[in-house]
Structures are given as structure tokens and as C-alpha cells.
Amino acid sequence: MKQEPVGLFEKYFIIWFRIVTERIWTGDKKFRNTSIAIFLFGVLNVFLLTGSVKDFFRLGEAAVYDIPSTLYGLNDKGEYEPIAEYYKFSRIPVKLEELKAETTNYSTDNRHKVIQCFLSTEDNSFYSHNGIDLKGIARAFVVNIMAGRVKEGASTITQQVARLKFLSIERSIARKAREAWLAVLLELVYPKDKILEVYLNEIPLGHGTIGVGAASRFYFRKEVQDVTWGEAAILASLTTRPTQFSPIVNPVSSMNKVRVVFRKLVENGRMTVADAEKEYAALEEYYTNLNRSPNDSAFSDRLNRFPYVTEYIRKNLIRSIGSSRLYNGGLKIYSTIQIRHQEEAEKALLPALQKQTLESNQRAFRNIDAFDDLYGSGYSLIADLYDLPEFKFKISRTERTFSSAYQEDMRDEFYALNLLTGDDYLGDTIEKNYNSQNTKDHLLPVEGSLIAIRPETGYITALVGGSGFRSDNQQIRPFQAFRQPGSAFKPILYAAAMDYSGKNPDPEKNVTPATLFADSPLQYLMEDGDEWAPENYSSEYSGFILLRKALEQSKNSVAVRVLEQVGLSHLMESLRGLLQLPGRDIPYNFSVSLGSFELTPYELTRAYAALASGGKTVNPISVLYVEDNSGNVIKDFRKDYEDVERKQVISKEAAFLITSMMKDVVEEGTGRGVLSYGLNRKAYGKTGTTNNFRDAWFVGYTPELVTSVWFGYDVGTISLGRGMTGGRLSAPVWGRFMARALEKEPAKEFPWLSEVKVTKRTVCRMSGKLPGGQCHDLLEEYFIPQTVPKDVCNDHGSAWNVVESKPQPQSTQNTIEKKKPDTKVEKKPIQTKPPKRKKSVFSGDEEIDY
């Protein structure tokens, strides 16, 4: 049998014990020595059970409170203003000197009424004992013996402080012994007033409140300094069983316990009977007007102006500083959120989502009896064979049927009839039902996202994550919703293509705003034999069209041709640099040009921010720095932000060109809805609508701010409805937000414009070439110097030398090799059997009617 090795300490202890034993049993005073040894060993055992050397070092923690942390945002004056609090329990520390003496002549004790109430009920001899009240212990022992149960406690306020700060709530002799030991130590270290102050700030008083400061604000909506005698008595009545004696949960029990508090005040000479009756009667108004939910808690009262912002920052801070420090450290968190921007974001997006929920009218699945109808009889047999739990509903089918019928068919009629009868009780009942369960509950909510970022600093100024932050809707969609961007991806693709052309000029393949492409149907034969045919939104085509106009009208066929002309492998480096997708990569297929792969709104907005920054990457940041309760900076996120290099992923010239093209989208194209709310500055952006109207986007910027707006269902296969495009849904919300958020900010130009080196040339609007003698419809266009067209438009009647894919013979089709960087097109004859036609991956979003 393997034995545990004996350590050096054990060997020394054995030797020491042997020496002590020999000394006790040698000599003439064996009995006395034995008695002393037994006593000393008894004292040692008691100390080891009740005390510890560590206790002497922990006493300093008694006066340290767990304080909520505060999140700050910037107001219009550039000053930080609290917008949220982080805590699990509400605590508002109160200093004893803040509780001013009473001016009434109720007793010789003129301390504040809250102090008198707690002393009378918890420890009337607090200022005369040394931490342990022996008389109180004896009295409680007799009372409990006579009652046959624990009716009265004997813990002093000091003992309660020791338990609240260092011990658990278990009932045991060992815990009571340690409580007494720690109480004695506390009395040796702290003055009485400090111990009482700690007690008033640490005692739990129900509904998530810790201490009299938080409890006073929760129960009475006032500061503890301003409470009445009756309200102070209510606070003192909550120390033993806060839930049972809560005035909100059990008003009757609360009134009875408050009567006990006033009796204690009378017994201890702090109040006369007449005064006690007068103050107790004054409480009647409080209980009469008390109309609050029993489930109400201080947590719901916490400051939380912008829940999505609060939750997003909370998750990030927990990873960097830990949850305990966040909830209890009294931290001051300085964020980049601008209060005006956040308020306007919620005002713009949330009503639009509610309206769209009704308009899209997609109903949640309600045929919950289908399983029971189809398989209910067989389930019992399967349950017996495999020991499955019983299949049952919480309410019967009759109740479900009546509830649904009442809610949808009868409730409005009942409400109208009640207006005639005037029955208050019936009216209140119907109103309560409207608030708790309305028709919209049967509709799937249209969700959305709005995120705004400063392009120069990366500061996130506004963030809305959905239709409303609730217990069942806490997804922060700007960061967690992976959706297909559709046509909103085209500016990123075109910017990368123009950047490549500027760095690798080729007169036959250059992509510029004036490059002419064919807007015509496309068909590609895939490796699996299926056919891919990208289509425009309206299934209409414009023939030859300039790239600038193609973006304005969101032509899908042109986007595919741009990618085919330049080659996906040539654009990958720029696309990766703009999107910044660590751990993920861009698929190698032509559907990328139509935004077929998924991005979060945050990732897409960050890519547009790079365009707004002159082609330089942006590193968004939401929290600047965090201070502790003493004002010391414990975490400076600005340093982390500055350490990340901002890379020039595309040229300033390419960023300038795509920006000028998106200006036309807003003024003449699919993004005209942006101007609905009177945006008084230049704006640049692009709409996006995915196949079957599942997602509606608008992403754009001004020199001051980059913002994205997304509409869609969480279930990505559900349509928003016919015609619900980005131009119709998202663009107006974007315009309203930008107009209101930037209302007080002066308009400015992009700071990088002075460094842009572009050439301005007059070209033929029809061909994109330098104008010839017969060209009368001219256009001034910007070019990267290396890509200025050299061909002259000679004859409008002849076939122009356009930059496009060469037409294929009728007997051949383009074949796209999946997941391969090589963009060479392999030609294969069409099979005799017609291939299966694959529906368009995406439809464009050119707006037909505004």
C-alpha cells in the first residue's frame, strides 16, 4: 500500500510534540502541567476553528464597497455624460455625516431617523458593547427556548458586518464562532461610526438593492437623507426577510412589520406613543398609492439610455478587464458614443422597423397543434419504447383557441362596447391585455441595424442592433448578423478594379468611370453542368453603358463583366485589404461581384470607411479609456488603437473616383431616398437589395461620418416583400439619421483631397472615348492619369471598340471554375440536353418608382 510521504514540517511537529509530552510527564507537577496543556490545546483548536492569520490582513476590505461602474458618452457640448450603469445589485454608498441630525424633540438621541430606526431594531446597545452583546445572546436564548423556534437573533451590527463582508449565510456553530471572532477584530480596528456606516451600505434590502441609499431610491424615489420616519421604518423592517416584508410584494405584512419598528422606537425611548401613531398613520398614503409590479427590481431602474450600446461595450469590457471589476469596481468608462447621434439613430430606425413589420406582414408559425394532430397518437407508443417524457402543452387547445380568437377577432369589439358602458375594471383588463399581448406578437419582427463610424478616427458614434432590446431580442446585429450585401458591394469591387487599372494600366482592360460595358444578359455554364444567369432587378437591359451610369442604376451584368475583365485574382489583394476579414476569405467565384458572400454590417461599414479615408484602413473603436474610482487610468484603448497600423490598401485616386460615382447614386440613382429629409451636405453611398428582397441596404458617407442601414428578417430566407429595396427602405432612414445627427456639425471636405492626383477630361457620353467631330453629348470625367482614354470617337454609327468581353459564338458558353484564383475562361460546347437553369444568385436594386 502506497503511503503519503512525510514532509519536513510533519517530522518537526512529531519531534516537538514528543519533547512537550516528555516535559509534561516529568517532574512533580504532572497534574498542573497536564491541565495547562489541555487548556492551551483547547485554545489552539478554538483559534483554528474560528480564526486565521489571514483575518488580520483582510480587515481593510471591510470599508471597501462594490460600486457600480458608469458608462459615459459625449453630448453636444463635447462633455461626457452618463448613459449607462453596470451592476448586478444596486448600491448608492452613503456617508454617515451626510445623514444630518434630526431637529424634532422625539428623544435625546438626535441622530438621523434612519440611524435611530436601525439601531432600535437591530442593536440598541451598539455603542456600548465590544462587538459581542452577551446580554443580547442570553435574552435571545431564553426567547427562542420559550418560543420553541428561532424567533430572535443575537447578532450585533458588528457581527452582521463581519458576516456580510467575509462570511456566508449558512447557519452553523462554526460560522457563528467566526462571526464573533471577526466582530471583535473589527471593533479593534474601526470606530463605531465607521462600522455603522459599512452596515448601512452593505445590508440587503430586497429587489436587488444593497444599502439604504439604493433602497430609498427604489422604494420611495428619493434620497435617503429626505425620507420620513415611516419610510425609515420601512427600510429598517426589511433587514430580516426583505421579500416577505417588502411593501411592494406584501403590503399587509410590511405594515405589520413597520408597526413593530415603531414599537421598538417607543420601547427604546426614541419616540412617544402619540408621535409613533402619528408617523405610522402618515404611511397610509404611501401604501394606498403603491401601484408597482411585485417583480419590479432595482436592476430595471438602472441607468441604461441605449441598451444595444450598453450590451456591446459590456461584452468587450468583460474580455479585457473582467466581469467582477466591471460590475463592482466603480469604474468610469469613456466611450466614443455621441449622444445626439445615438438618439437620432434610434429615432430613425426603430419606428421604421415597426412600420415595416406591419407592411411585410410575415406571420410567425402558429399551428402548434399540427404535431399533436399528425403524430400525437403514435407518440405515446414511441415514448414507451424509448422512455421519452410526456408530450403536453402548458395550456389546453381550448384555451389557445379562445385566446387567439379573442385577441384577433373580439378584443377590439369589446373595447368599443366598453367605451359605451364605461366600466373601469373591464377597461383596465382589456388595456392590460393590449399591453401584454397584442396582434403584433403574431408577426415576425423585421430587424435592422445602424452603425456610424468617424472615417478619420474610427470612433463608433452610434449603434442600434435591432427592433428593440428585450430579453428575447439581444442580438447586436451590426456585429453578429452575417448577411449578403448585394449591390452594396459594387463600390468596393469597382474601387479595387480602378485601383488595379491605375497601378497596371492597359488600354484594352482599364476600368474607369467612363469605361463602356455591355449591359446585356449573361449565361455561364458551371462545372456541375448547371447554368448561372445573373439578372438585373427589372430584367431590363440598357445595352452599352458607362460604368458611372451602371453604378448609378445598379446594373448587375456590368458588375460581373468588370470582374471578368480585370480578373478576380488581380483584385483579391485590394478586396482583402478593404474588407479586413481575419480568419475568413473571399470566395473565388464571379458571384462575388454581386455580393453573394456574407458580411456583417460592421464589416461593410468599415470597408466604406476605408473609401471615405482615401483608401486607408480604419480601425473602429468604441471605448477610449477606463478609470478606476480614484481617477487612475487602468485601461487605455487609445494606445491599442494607435499601435494598429492604418494601411493604404487602395490609392487615393481610386477612392476619389468611386466617391464621385456614389455621389451620382445619391443624386440621380437608386439612392435618391437619402434626400427625403433635407440632408444639407454632399453624400455618397450605395443601395443594396438581395435576391427575393431578403435584405435591404444603404451604406454611405459624408466627410464627417460613415453609416450603414440594413433591413431584414433574422431568418435569411424570408422576404421583406415585393419591391422592398434598399432604395425604398434603408435610404430614407440613412438620410434622416445623417440629416439630424450632423445638423449641428459644420460641413467639411475630405482631408485627403489635396493629395489626390487625377486628370479631368471631356469624353463622349455614349462611348466614353475622347470626343470626335460628330460627338455632341459630352461629359467631363475624372481619370487616374495612367488610364486616360487615348482613342477618339470617330463614328457613332459604326461598331465602337468597347472594353467588354468578346461575344462568344452561339455554340459556346463561359465556364466559371469554382474556388480557383485563375480567371481564364474555358470554352465548352453546349450539351445537346438543355442544362438546368440556375436562378440568379442576386437581383439588382435599381429603383423603378419613388
TrEMBL record:
Residues 816-829 have a biased composition (Basic and acidic residues). GO terms for molecular function: carboxypeptidase activity; penicillin binding; peptidoglycan glycosyltransferase activity. SUPFAM superfamilies: beta-lactamase/transpeptidase-like, Lysozyme-like. GO terms for cellular component: membrane; outer membrane-bounded periplasmic space. Keywords: Carboxypeptidase, Cell shape, Cell wall biogenesis/degradation, Glycosyltransferase, Hydrolase, Membrane, Multifunctional enzyme, Peptidoglycan synthesis, Protease, Transferase, Transmembrane, Transmembrane helix. It holds the Pfam family Transpeptidase. The chain crosses the membrane at residues 36-53. Residues 448-714 form the Penicillin-binding protein transpeptidase domain. InterPro entries: Beta-lactam/transpept-like, Glyco_trans_51, Glycosyltr_51/Transpeptidase, Lysozyme-like_dom_sf, PBP_transglycosylase, PCN-bd_Tpept. Gene3D superfamilies: Biosynthetic peptidoglycan transglycosylase-like, DD-peptidase/beta-lactamase superfamily. GO terms for biological process: cell wall organization; peptidoglycan biosynthetic process; proteolysis; regulation of cell shape. Pathway: Glycan biosynthesis; Cell wall biogenesis; peptidoglycan biosynthesis. Its EC number is 2.4.99.28. It catalyses: [GlcNAc-(1->4)-Mur2Ac(oyl-L-Ala-gamma-D-Glu-L-Lys-D-Ala-D-Ala)](n)-di-trans,octa-cis-undecaprenyl diphosphate + beta-D-GlcNAc-(1->4)-Mur2Ac(oyl-L-Ala-gamma-D-Glu-L-Lys-D-Ala-D-Ala)-di-trans,octa-cis-undecaprenyl diphosphate = [GlcNAc-(1->4)-Mur2Ac(oyl-L-Ala-gamma-D-Glu-L-Lys-D-Ala-D-Ala)](n+1)-di-trans,octa-cis-undecaprenyl diphosphate + di-trans,octa-cis-undecaprenyl diphosphate + H(+). Residues 803-850 are annotated as: Disordered. Residues 111-265 form the Glycosyl transferase family domain. It is found in: Membrane. In the N-terminal section; belongs to the glycosyltransferase 51 family. In the C-terminal section; belongs to the transpeptidase family. This is peptidoglycan glycosyltransferase. The lineage of its organism: Bacteria, Pseudomonadati, Spirochaetota, Spirochaetia, Leptospirales.
